[in-house]
Amino acid sequence: MSGFDDMDVDTIWMDGEFVDWDDAQIHVLTHGLHYGSGVFEGVRCYDTEQGPAIFRWDEHLDRFYDSAKPYDMDIEFSREELTDATHELIERQNLQSCYIRPIAFYGYNTLGVSPQDCPTRVAIACWPWGTYLGEDALENGVDVMVSSWRKHASSQIPTNAKTTGLYVNSMLAGEEARRNGYVEAIVLNKEGNVAEGPGENLFLVRDDAIYTPGLAESILDGITRQTVIELAEEAGYEVHEESAISRGELYTADELFFTGSAAEVTPIKTVDDVTIGAGERGPITEELQSRFFEVVERRTDDHDEWFTYI
Ligand SMILES: Cc1ncc(COP(=O)(O)O)c(C=O)c1O
Which atom belonging to ligand 1 lies closest to the Cα atom of 60? Predict the structure, then answer.
């Protein structure tokens, strides 16, 4: 039994071949399992009138290859091969909208910390995935807490690489929040400034201007973050995308929201039980969120360059 059982998916692409879902197995002594030496992506494909449309695939591929660089990991498949594999997975399984998970990791050979003699394995899976933070999160917002766990600093580990091992920090922060009755966490960086959520970037609205922690704040350079910055600027907002945001500024913000491929644009209604703004989705969050969905669901011709149609 698994959470994928009723999802009507049956195929995974692994190292150049399509294999049955249940046969996509690895050895228990895989390097990546022991040391977190993998890199991955999370991409959404939206159901549109023109058919399934993958959102910002090129940027996700860029980040995928970039993430592998600090780990000296050679992803031996080309962009075309990964793109073709993904298209075929979506077609074969008749998926209209889905989440796409490419992953590359050091595989099975030796189990010293050095991965030098381990092969790089690459896989892609796709499956249907609804709202990340719960059904009413997009409309009504979520209650979050500031985690007692700090984010690893970019001087300790490359935080701009989307590395599997980093996500134990996300897991600790997110589970601490859920154990305490919150939906999600906000994680501060080593300096005590606001970094991001466990799987989301964070935006703050104050006096009609928009702020988001800068890339030097130990955050992932989120593709939804880039998208929202661009859409907000197009809408005429002043966006401060290299901000340092203190914890206290969270509580006094007019609006706060998360962005991410999984979380999309999710309003935050309370932080540590302090009501943010009016305690509901704020007007600028709502405007940017509806613009985001208008674009990703292709109810406009704008930004067609962000989409790869199946
Ligand atoms: C730690 C972290 N920050 C931010 C994000 C948002 O990034 P993106 O919009 O590229 O999904 C994610 C999700 O991938 C994440 O895991």
Answer: 10
DSSP string of 160-185, one letter each residue: TS-BGGGHHHHHHHHHHHHHTT-SEE
Ligand 1 centroid to Cα of residue 160, in Å, is 10
The residues lining ligand 1, judged by C-beta closer than 6 Å to any ligand atom, are 42, 170, 196, 199-201, 220, 222-225, 259-261
Q: Which residue has the tokens 């991410």?
A: 260
Q: How far is the CA of 116 from the centre of ligand 1 (A)?
A: 28
Q: β-strands 142-146, 184-188: how paired?
A: parallel
**What digits encode the pLDDT tens for the residues 142-181?**
999 999 999 999 999 999 999 999 999 999 999 999 999 9
pLDDT digits (tens, 9 = 90+) for 227-283: 999 999 999 999 999 999 999 999 999 999 999 999 999 999 999 999 999 999 999
The model carries a pTM of 0.97
Question: How many angstroms separate the CA atoms of 151 and 162, rounded?
Answer: 14
Domains, the chain, ranges and CATH? 8-127 (3.30.470.10), 137-296 (3.20.10.10)
- 151 among known catalytic residues: no
